[in-house]
Write a structure and sequence with these properties.
This is LysR family transcriptional regulator. This protein is 43% helix and 19% strand. It is an alpha/beta fold and 322 residues long. A hairpin with a 6-residue loop joins strand 1 and strand 2.
Length: 322
Amino acid sequence: MTIQQLKYIVALDEERHFARAAEVCMVTQPGLTIQLKNLEEEIGIKIFDRNKVPLTPTLLGIEIINRAKKILREADDIRDFVINEKNTLEGEVKVGVISTLSPYLIPLFIKSMKETTPKMQFTIKEAYTGQLIQGLESGALDVAIMATPTGNPHLIEHPVFREPFLAYLNQNHPMADALLYEMQPGDKAELLLLQNEYCYNAQLLDICGIKDPGKIKEQFLYDISSIETLKNLVRAELGFAILPELSIINEAHTGLFKPFKEPKPVREISLVVSDTFSKKLLLEKMNEAIWNCLPESLQQNFAYRKIRWNDSPYFIKAVSKL
């Protein structure tokens, strides 16, 4: 028994004629007749007396038609509820953001969302990629703003923008006076990574062509998780860093960062939700708010190559140890 079959018998009751009912249902008359026959055979009851003109429901058919009308009304109520749920901009939403993006995007994003969705309450959680994925799967988070693809079949990704990576150099670096950065022989051994930021580190290793992070110089091991600390280490001439562009938007005057040549290495930033998430209008508003608060340089088209992380041997090996 299907909703469509119930619609057919209600239309037949209202029209009392196969051809007119088929026209109302936008189906061929033979198709409608077959579906009625299939339904009657399934329940073992004749719903209409075909020997009478006009077509007349049987006594049991009248009761079945009345129940069908009730079911269809309830189905419409469910549809209206779903549409309203998708379009509502009220209530609480828990948003997770990767820690390498949160300090730079969230202050801009919150200001825009406060104007767009004044009746919504946002709880913002900064976390590592693995924690965000776990939060989405468990329901602890509704939406995550993170680098994609995740490689998780139960999550839905809505790409928002591509964020270029930049080289962050100290004043004595060989490329300090260049307009564009090119990898130098000594840079790979000086690359600074972030503790527990497996997806971010995997992207940096990919950009530098490093297969084994053990090749990086390890006289000092830095157990840090802040991009700002990485910057200070670079300024102190203790290493070399690759940073996402949003992390240096207020440092254009320093001249310490250098863009890569095109195609620029970028990370894809997306809104990620579970496959059961229903608030589509909210996602549209969040997408719009993020895009509108980006600096103009990130809104422009440019040649790029997307840096993946979820298929990196380093990422897989590091996460397996958790």
